[in-house]
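Quick illustration, no need to memorize.
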Amino acid sequence: MASSYRSFKSILAEHAHRFPDKIFLHSIHQDQSITYGELFALSNRIAHFLDDAGICANDRVLVLADNSIECAAVYLGVLRHGATVALINVALNRAHLADQVAAVAPKLLLYREGLDLTALGVRAPAACLALGSLRRSTGLFAELAGRPEAGDRPSLAGPEDHASIFYTSGTTAKPKGVVYSHSTLFHNFDAVADGLQLSDSDRVLEFRALSWISPQLNSFGSSLVRGASMFLARDFSAFSYFDWLRSFRITVGFCIPVGINLLLERGARIGPQDLPHLRFMTSSSAPLPVEQWRRFEATFGIKLAAHGGTSECGLIAATHCDNRRIGAVGRPVKYQQVRVLDSDGRALGPGEIGEIYVGGGKQQADAFLSPDGRLIQRCADSLSTGDLGYLDRDGYLWITGRIKDVVIRAGINIAPAEIDEILIAHPGIDDAATVGVADPVYGQRLVCYVVRSAGSDLGVDEVLAHCRGTLPKIKVPSAVEFVDALPRTERGKVNRNALAVGG
């Protein structure tokens, strides 16, 4: 495939020329917007500031902040300059913050005003500055005053220079640093935009922290490369989400399974006539059970589309409103090569479940950052996603479970997600999660944690009978525990580790 790479400076310059007065980003909680023209001028000022500070290609700029105009502008300013940017949301990463800052070893640290870095255990570099406020011209933005807005200064980075460092969620281990080059980052942005069929007429809604890789790639980055407008909330609100869709004339609303469930619980009276601009909503970060998918669409008349990937592999597959297949992640995006392999590394055919591997070279992580700050180059051409699944005859990717979540019972591999899906289909169950716990005879036994629907008096026997009517004997749970809610990670995924410890 011929090179399709574009520098971030060229993208910003083109959009500033085409539609200088169009909103790039509106921060909902700040009630503040920045246009493409303003963004390009500001990114040039940031580039001159970084140049004066001696920041070169592959030097790291670390930003400790939450969702804001300032955070977004600095992120793109660093990319336009050609250095490497890392975003860390202090509220979400407090437990590992000091270690992550040490590993990144930034040449410049920018932090949200009011943060006590010493109390957080952060050893700040010599170059350290409060991010400040764009509107009030404080902190960094006071330093930018008077610097040139013209875009004649070239970017310092080439395609293979490092662009961004992300941290994984750390669901099963300590968070890991993942390094993307400028080329890798661009190709992920472009792949998402293509997979979701975004255009410059779209207006997208996002609420997840921009420090997460998913919103950086899926909403923020895809909006940038297509010239779309993004509307950014600080966090999710089931009471405001539909109002945001309506008031900002959103065309694509990004969401996650736990958000979908909370919207269903709220039970708002809303239909397609209330959201004439909305093309579809997305669900990502974790599989959305088919029953919840169908229930959401039937309740609100809103089309849902899926997309999925990993920190190490980037976006893998996506659907949009016209090619959805309910339950599937979607078709592999244009730069990805997806294979399903058995335990011996042999390729499997359509419908056969195995481990999902991804290659192609344009979207996979370029390197990893070890806890002690060492840069470990990726050596494999094909990376394991850690997921189990299959490709159907039409090329759609289906996820059936996680490798690390697999329960081995009497020598049989069991994907807990399969049992969860059966449980959630029961009208008396709102949510469920299955884990494996040690068993002296079978190696592991299955324990299901169930959240009853409101008003349900469902009992253990009924749950087990439901499972026996659908599942093979080996997959029927040994025990059922009723809980008020399932523990979840900061990214909304069920924390099976916490359940397993409790079991």
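The chain has two domains: 8-397, 405-502.
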